[in-house]
Design goal:
3 helices, globular, 432 residues, Porin, 21 strands, two-stranded antiparallel ribbon, 16-stranded antiparallel barrel
Length: 432
């Protein structure tokens, strides 16, 4: 009986490979649903089998793999998959060491004190657990719930639980806390570093969005997101509540297993208080982004480029660095929208189905007009950064990844200071 179950399951997996490859092009080898509890007949459904249903409910992110285990009720009205990963890393920094074992973020670099130019770290902060729940899977009113908790919420080697995702999906609508619709996680290659290139997607957020396939190849999405503004002011009085949601949207075209191209945009309204004229003012922020991935034989290429004004929080390494608005030198009391642009390119080469290597380069540039009197000094803002990564990953099994990675980053600020750092990471990851 067990052999029969696994045989039928394997057939279902094969039938779903096209869908999985399209949603998760970063994986070198596909995961498999290996055991189902509760209903053997469910595995015979080649359309709504548990594998397809559950994978459709998880984020399009290389950190989340396809399910290996599922519980199905006898009436096939409830699917449950529980996933977890323990990611153990040992890291060695030299140059200007960065005390963050889970992320390599050049915008956070600071000059090392004499004698502190090297640092050894070990951590399991990037470990996580997730719950994937689908109700009424064969009904057009299918309800999906996904919750992911990580242990990287603390500083240094503190282990505080942090919510990475918590959302509800029904009828093409997604409501909850997850990655911004402006982001395209499938354009990010798999790295040991949890941060990646600084110009890629920024913070997660509360969102209400709608996404739908118009054709098997063409997909659209539009949403509303909780406004999150971080700006440099002249006085604390400039800060005020935001009242208009950000509006992200995208259009995407996919070529089955070959890859996809996506054009995304975002519009936001940035409100502040002008304490000189004693009135509230607002400025529009906007961004446009082009992302793509493509399979080329044994290789997978990734690309992203974006630009905009007043959208610093939507570029990962600018998030929280007060660059959405900065003081205007021409008009005392007013703020301006700094411009930003960035790009990344990466190539993953699959030597075998279980061994692959990735190289990545990223660049981020900010344009801030010189000012005086801001709460944050003009010269301390980051002008640009370079990010480089190269790794080798061995997928020892569908559960185990072993790898080594080199990271290099340079930050250059508007005061003409340059800070660089290097990191070697060794990883042992067990996930299911």
């Amino acid at each position: 009986m067990r052999l029969k179950i696994l045989s039928v399951c394997a057939a279902a997996i094969f039938a779903s490979m096209t869908i999985n490859a399209q949603r998760h092009p970063t994986t070198a080898a596909e995961s498999q649903l290996q055991f189902v509890v509760g209903n053997e007949q469910a595995l015979n459904d080649t359309v709504d089998n548990p594998y397809n249903v559950l994978i459709d409910n998880i984020p399009s992110d290389p950190e989340y793999t396809a399910p290996h285990f599922a519980i199905i009720d006898q009436d096939q009205k409830f699917y449950l998959s529980i996933g977890a990963a323990v990611k153990a890393v040992a890291l060695y920094d030299w140059g200007n060491p960065y005390e963050n074992p889970s992320d390599f973020k050049p915008s956070d670099f600071t000059l090392a004190q004499p004698g502190n130019e090297q640092l050894l770290q070990m951590s399991i902060k990037s470990s996580s657990v997730n719950f994937n729940i689908v109700g009424m899977p064969k009904n057009k009113y299918r309800i999906g719930i996904f919750i992911a908790l990580a242990f990287n919420g603390g500083v240094g080697n503190d282990y505080y639980v942090k919510c990475d995702h918590a959302y509800l999906k029904v009828l093409g609508l997604t409501f909850g806390y997850t990655s911004s619709l402006y982001d395209d996680k499938t354009a990010d290659a798999y790295l040991i570093d949890g941060n990646g290139a600084g110009a890629s997607g920024g913070h997660s957020n509360m969102t209400l969005n709608w996404q739908r396939h118009i054709t098997p190849q063409l997909k659209l999405g539009v949403g509303l997101e909780l406004p999150k503004v971080s700006y440099t002011t002249t006085t604390p009085m400039n800060n005020t509540y935001q009242r208009i949601p950000a509006i992200p949207a995208y259009i995407q075209y996919a070529w089955n297993e070959v890859g996809h191209i996506r054009l995304s945009g975002i519009f936001r309204q940035l409100r502040y208080y002008d304490d000189i004229s004693s009135r509230y003012r607002s400025l529009p922020g906007y961004g446009i982004k082009l992302t793509a991935n493509a399979k080329m034989g044994n290789a997978v290429g990734y690309f992203m480029a974006q630009t905009g004004k007043g959208i610093a929080n939507y570029l990962k390494d600018n998030d929280g660095f007060n660059l959405d608005l900065t003081p205007s030198p021409e008009n005392n009391g007013r703020l301006k929208r700094p411009g930003s642009w960035g790009m990344l390119s990466a190539l993953q080469y699959n030597f075998t189905p279980k061994m692959f290597s990735t190289v990545m380069y990223g660049y981020l540039r900010n344009y801030v007009t010189p000012y005086e009197g801001g709460i944050i000094e003009y010269g301390s803002h980051m002008k640009y950064e370079h990010y480089c990564a190269a790794n080798f990953i061995w997928r020892a099994s569908s559960f185990v990844d072993i790898g080594i990675e080199y990271n290099h980053g340079i930050k250059y600020d508007f005061a003409h200071n340059s800070i660089s750092n290097n990191r070697i990471s060794a990883m042992f990851r067990v996930g299911f």
